């Protein structure tokens, strides 16, 4: 199988067109009005909950407020013997809509939370794009909206309560939710001088890793598009690989009375989104019943924070084929290029982690708060050697130090051959290659 490695994955599920979709009824134990704690693990900003599905498990699910419906890896669907009940349209972050089979579990139980019945889709993205997290699926937001969902990133706890937020709650801001869409809050953006520019609604996406996503049509006044870099950022549920512009904001952003400095934005998407790289600075409470959210810091006297650093070594694109990791594009003005890495080099290990390890891919691309340097074991033709490469911010604090972006270092074009039977073959410049295996399309059964 040939695939591009994943630097960032953002899940967004929307656009249900199954007329008979049954939404889950959510209940919590103990009694009404009491706060309950959900079993959860925080892994580099991702929130992973343990769930029992039809009394089987536990299974590890990403808690994703950006998803209206839950999803499972096909192996779990098969293990549970779930049957197709219809079809549902899912629109990914790239705006691509795919029709998936709709399934139902009798119950998804997360600690004291019970969701009955629980609509689901099956997608292989959890094995392909989240292998490092070792998860079995995701838990969508629908059902959780019957309570106040408390994502306490600093304390690494997830709570549910029937108690509502009020306008007097610390850090309270208006919350908007249309239908079964993602909960959204307003963020104020500022110019280079720190003057407020505009306030826009941004969807809260705990299943997305970014700082912010900006619409291209409105991003020019908010972001330094003149120093933007085009990066391969991830894969969607349909297997789409995104190559987006990433740019530093011109000024800080403000949410819930807190000013956030040095955030970056990903441009040319279809939504305004906040990912967990900013969310994890806060205790985030969402209460669509009251139309309110609350964003508070650990120190209530603190009103200004710095966004997590976005840095790397400059590997922009890679291809993994039969366990071989080949560099396909390197930023010309980058630590990787200055250290002597070249397109078509093959990376055997990073910091001693071999290609087949689930943690390998996470070390190859753009990272938040990375180590000062990484060591790569590289094969170039018949020579094998180690290179220690420093990491550096994608955008330095002083943007004046940023040199004009040169064209990326790229190998000669890869040949894509389509055979009469419809299969496609990829041939690399060195003559190697193989059959291109896309993400399998969803089956198309009728109920």
Account of the 3D structure:
This protein has about 450 residues and is mainly beta. The protein has three domains: about 1-160, Cathepsin D, subunit A, domain 1, CATH 2.40.70; about 165-305, Beta Barrel (Cathepsin D, subunit A, domain 1); about 310-400, Roll (Pdz3 Domain). About 5% of the residues lie in helices and about 45% in strands. The protein contains five helices and 40 strands. The strands form five sheets. The chain has a 16-stranded mixed sheet that branches. A hairpin with a 2-residue loop joins strand 30 and strand 31.
CATH names the topology of the largest domain as: Cathepsin D, subunit A, domain 1
CATH superfamily of the largest domain, by name, is: Acid Proteases
| Total beta-strand segments | 40
Identify the CATH architecture of the largest domain: Beta Barrel
Largest sheet: 16 strands, mixed
Number of discrete domains: 3
| Content of β-strand | 35-45%
Q: List low-confidence stretches.
A: 1-19, 235-240, 438-447
The amount of helix comes to under 10%
Provide a short characterization of the protein structure:
With 447 residues, this protein is mostly beta strands.
Task: Summarize the topology.
Elements: E1 2-3, E2 25-28, E3 36-38, E4 40-43, E5 46-53, E6 56-63, E7 70-72, H1 74-80, E8 84-91, E9 97-105, E10 108-110, E11 113-116, E12 118-122, H2 125-129, E13 137-139, E14 148-152, E15 157-161, E16 172-176, E17 184-190, E18 196-204, E19 212-215, H3 216-219, E20 229-235, E21 241-248, E22 253-255, E23 258-261, E24 264-269, E25 273-274, H4 276-279, E26 283-287, E27 292-296, E28 304-306, E29 310-312, E30 315-321, E31 324-330, H5 335-339, E32 346-350, E33 353-354, E34 367-368, E35 373-380, E36 383-390, E37 392-393, E38 415-418, E39 424-427, E40 433-436
Parallel strand pairs: 6-13, 7-12, 18-25, 19-24, 23-28
Antiparallel strand pairs: 1-30, 2-11, 3-15, 4-5, 5-6, 5-10, 7-13, 8-9, 9-12, 10-11, 14-15, 14-26, 16-17, 16-27, 17-18, 17-22, 19-25, 20-21, 21-24, 22-23, 26-27, 29-34, 29-37, 30-31, 31-32, 32-33, 32-35, 35-36, 38-39, 39-40
